[in-house]
Amino acid sequence: MSVGAWEPANQASNDQSGQQIDRALLEQILEFMECPTAPATDSQEASDLQYAAGPTAMHAPALDPTTLPASLQSAHWLAGLPTSQWLQEASHWQPQQVWGLIRFFTLAESSLDWPGGAESPVIPLAKSLRQRKSPLNKAQLMWIREHTDNRYLPYGPL
Question: To 5 degrees, how large is the angle CA 134–CA 144–CA 149?
């Protein structure tokens, strides 16, 4: 009798790592979340970033499937992308835009039943802000807690 390891034919069927993040789709998300969509510049990243000080910074439009644009309704595959892909993509956006993406994915997970949990894109997006020395502030952390029941947000499993 031989002992071996069984390898499934379709390993990681939920792995979307072959797909690239579409920046145009992220821009649509940011527009929906009422965030500016201009790409980051070095001078903007180097400046003091008060990305949550504006009056609409904590405002979040309702993610109702009936009012959500069709292109965003079908974008649930974004939530399954690997952490490394999100970290790389976040480097192309200003902190206020990353915050807009964090708000969208937090709401999408709770309102639209998008995948999340410990694999939520919110986790690498929040990590990218910490790596830039622009971590989420207390008001932002409280906003996330108020809008989700995912115990892993925003910092992942500890």
Answer: 145
Q: Is 42 part of a structural domain of the chain?
A: no
Q: Do residues 122 and 154 make contact, with C-beta atoms less than 8 angstroms apart? A: yes
pLDDT digits (tens, 9 = 90+) for 43-99: 444 333 444 444 445 666 668 888 889 899 889 999 999 999 999 999 999 999 999
Range of the domain at 84: 29-34+64-158
Cα separation, 143 vs 84, in Å, equals 25
CA neighbours closer than 13 Å in the CB half-sphere of residue 82: 10
With respect to residue 2, please indicate whether it lies within any of the assigned structural domains. Answer: no
Residue 10 lies in a domain: no
Does the bond joining 8 to the residue before it have cis omega, within 30 degrees of 0? no
pTM: 0.78
Instruction: Identify whether 154 is preceded by a cis peptide bond (ω within 30 of 0).
Output: yes
pLDDT in tens, 122-152: 999 999 999 999 999 999 999 999 999 999 9
